[in-house]
Design a protein that fits this description.
Layout (H helix, E strand, L loop, with lengths): L6 E2 L9 H6 L10 H10 L2 E3 L3 E3 L11 H21 L12 H6 L1 E6 L4 E10 L2 E7 L6 E4 L2 H18 L4 E3 L8
Parallel strand pairs: 1-8
Antiparallel strand pairs: 2-3, 2-8, 3-4, 4-5, 5-6, 6-7
Length: 179
């Protein structure tokens, strides 16, 4: 389905680390899901449905990549949920999650209003990972068994942002860290 999404702008594919896209491994020893690989190979750094910033692996000298921004957001997500569990805020994992799921989730996209799209690396089927949404880091909703399956729900969650966006995927120019 990622191939069917409309696209605007010029993909900054030179900023994507193809080596890391190929070499990265999750705890299960497998790499990035094929649907994500197709999306970032087509659009690079992008905004999905006018709202979600997607973080591909970045080459050295570029900010906001998988190994930088997504890793930071994953740490922030896990710390927030760890605190929530310690406080007994069980509503944070509703409607579909639980505390063990929250500990496993990994951020791969973040909305401009503070929501996260996450993978559960323990759910690999045919190379794909289940996609979850954490609304305001206060809820866990299962969106689909893969990014392709989740895209209709992600578009729905994006509401007016998706309606106003010039395309499903807006190619972005990543910030340079080396001047």
């Amino acid at each position: 389905m990622a191939d069917q999404l409309s696209l605007t702008g010029v993909p900054a594919l030179g900023a994507v680390s193809v080596d890391l896209l190929d070499a990265y491994r999750f705890e299960d020893g497998e790499g990035f899901p094929p649907s994500y690989r197709r999306l970032v190979s087509r659009a690079g750094f992008c905004r999905l449905f006018g709202l979600w910033l997607v973080y591909p692996p970045a080459r050295d000298g570029y900010a906001d990549g998988w190994q930088h921004r997504a890793a930071h957001l994953t740490d922030r997500f896990r710390a927030t949920y760890q605190d929530g569990q310690a406080e007994g805020f069980d509503w944070m994992v509703e409607p579909d999650g639980d505390w063990p799921v929250a500990r496993r989730l990994v951020v791969f996209a973040f909305s401009e209003n503070g929501d996260a799209l996450l993978w559960d690396p323990s759910t690999r089927t045919d190379g794909e990972l289940a996609v979850w949404c954490s609304t305001g880091l206060d809820a866990l909703t299962l969106l689909g068994s893969s990014l392709t399956d989740a895209l209709p729900r992600v578009r729905e969650l994006s509401g007016p942002f998706a309606e106003r966006a010039p395309a499903d995927l807006e190619c972005l120019t990543p910030a340079r860290t080396d001047g």
